[in-house]
Amino acid sequence: MSIVYLNGQFLPKDEAKISPDDRGFLLADGVYEVTPFYEGAPFCLDRHLTRLEQGLSWMRIQQPVDGLEDVQRRLILENGLESAATSLTYIQITRGAAPRTHYFPVDPVEATVYAYAKAWDRPSPERWSKGFTVATVPDQRWSRVDVKTICLLPNVLAFQDAIEAGADDALLVRDGVAIEGAHMNFWGVFDGVLVTHPTTNQILPGITRGVVLDLAAADGIPVEQRPIQVEELGAAEELFFTGTTGEVRPCVGVDGTPVGDGRVGTITKRLSQLFRAEVEAAKEAAAGTPVA
Ligand SMILES: Cc1ncc(COP(=O)(O)O)c(C=O)c1O
What we know:
6-stranded antiparallel β-sheet
């Protein structure tokens, strides 16, 4: 039985009770964050907490993120994940439980803060080297997907459509632009230039995306942040995705058509290596850091 965190308490998951009046349940009125841990060491914890804090502020949910670092570290320990190669914490904060209204509760209520930790698996090197495929699916999300809200229905439907089309993942398309994946940011290499959508209200500003941009700059890989048109995809030398549990994930086929020569490209491989090195550095830096 996993140990979870709910409103100030650590307790077995089956003892965690959330009101049916919770606005997360009734209205998707909340935000979430997923932070990766490698052998118990958090990766980019500050960036994840900052994004969470910004989301809460935008949604006008009065809930400080102070203390959530310790909560996450303790969840990793309580669940015996300190040696797991790859694990994560999930935090969800909703506006709280109150009689259902389409506006904020009239009488102030406490936010609901729920968190858990679990292991996740990287694809094997053989699986990664084969690359992954996507199906293009219309992007039916709202106009503030830069906020990491728990309202993920369009992402769920898109991902399901992609799976039913026989692909590994979805590529969301709006007005002829390949925006991002259902749970990852999207990248292409065109004439040796690395391209990804700029940070607007149309994409989630991925933490992994930010790390990869920094790595590319430091490695001298030319980068352009601009929308990628679907009609350009046939000319892409490489395509890949980035995300917390996807890391750097090669994409070798779109709607059944191979990308480039259909094999994982050199820039994708290079960025994946650099990303892994960054993870190793974070693990080393964390070694000896006292845990909660
Ligand atoms: C729609 C979407 N884009 C991109 C990402 C990648 O963000 P990150 O690198 O912070 O995991 C996510 C992660 O959940 C996502 O849901």
